[in-house]
Specification:
The chain is 19% helix and 46% strand. The chain is an alpha+beta fold. This is Cystatin.
């Protein structure tokens, strides 16, 4: 039973959210960079993103909740949490929307 659980990358949580056990993937880093770019309007290079927490749920599209750390040239800049909604394929709305964003 333990082996079965350890081989899964996701686990189901409360309220329909699915926790991602290994959150620092290319896709989640791209979502974090998208949200940061949308809300902070950064232009400088040298930024890297480390995703520390990720979960998603499917409900008329996909909603992502991501916690991440922003580094610039190896130095920690800030820690952020974001919520991003991606509409379903084939809908009129095609673009991702950052619905919540917070950094400290």
């Amino acid at each position: 039973m333990g082996w079965l659980l350890s081989s899964c990358d996701e686990s189901f949580g409360a309220s329909g959210w699915t926790e991602v056990r290994n959150p620092d993937t290319y896709t989640n880093r791209a979502l974090a960079e998208f949200a940061y770019g949308e809300k902070k309007r950064y232009r400088s290079g040298g930024l890297t993103f480390l995703v520390t927490q990720a979960r998603h749920k499917y409900q008329q599209g996909t909603e992502y909740q991501i916690g991440f750390i922003v580094y610039q040239n190896g130095l920690l800049i800030e820690k952020c949490i974001t919520k991003i909604f991606t509409p379903p394929i084939g809908s009129l709305q095609r673009r991702k929307i950052v619905t919540k964003f917070w950094c400290r």
